[in-house]
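Let us practice reading a record.
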Amino acid sequence: MQLITVYTAFSPVDADLVRSRLEAADFHPAVVHDIAALSVEGYSGTTGGILVQVPDQEAEDAAEFLRSEDNQQDT
């Protein structure tokens, strides 16, 4: 199983919120690079951010879920 990035955050709080939303929708997310971002100020910005990833078989559906959630919040 390969993990695919469906969201990139530059704040651990933002990444954790997205992880929680995905878990509530029965996806299986993992957050990568969050500990390093907490230990070194500015680290997440220089390394491409904190990654929220899901298993490859869930990636397309998870990305669509996040897009639809964002669209609902905009209205």
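A brief commentary: The mean pLDDT is 84.
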